[in-house]
Amino acid sequence: MTAHVIKRPDGFEISDVTARLDLPFVHGFLSEYTYWATGRTLETVARSVANSVCLGVYDPSGAQVGFGRMVTDRTTTAHLTDVFISSGHRGLGLGKALVGAMLSHPDLVTVRRWTLSTMDAHAIYAAYGFTAMVDPEQQMMRMLPRP
């Protein structure tokens, strides 16, 4: 697989090169600043990254400022998760660029079923064609308590 890198005119980059990811940064943000991953361990973040398609967002100096992960079979289904831009870099269009890069990733061109869960970003995702589940009775979930 060829690296998927998007270079923006403002010097920011979005890349799927796993070796570039700053796992302590990703872990710190997820475990401390999100409602969905509070307390997640570094080991859990590392395993989730190793088993997903991930994109990092990098400022012109190369420091990571955002992240997004896709749980996928790379053929039919993908679930967007752990999407964030650090607070100091919001309002620059980076979140929208990240979601756009996730949805257009070349390894996922045959994916038809895209899902995600959000409590507060419906409008952002609606701009990319996401809608509320038509028939929630078809959707099921098993949620275990955190260890």
Structure commentary:
With 147 residues, the chain is α+β, with helices and mostly antiparallel strands. The protein has one domain: Aminopeptidase (3-Layer(aba) Sandwich). 24% of the residues lie in helices and 23% in strands. The chain is globular, with a radius of gyration of 15 Å. The model has no long low-confidence stretch (mean pLDDT 92).
Helices and strands in order, then pairings?
Layout: E1 5-7, E2 13-15, H1 23-33, H2 42-50, E3 53-58, E4 64-72, E5 77-85, H3 94-103, E6 113-116, H4 122-126
Parallel strand pairs: 5-6
Antiparallel strand pairs: 1-2, 2-3, 3-4, 4-5
Describe the structure concisely for a colleague.
This protein is of the alpha+beta class and 147 residues long. It has helices at residues 23-33, 42-50, 94-103, 122-126; strands at 5-7, 13-15, 53-58, 64-72, 77-85, 113-116. A hairpin with a 5-residue loop joins β1 and β2 (13-15).
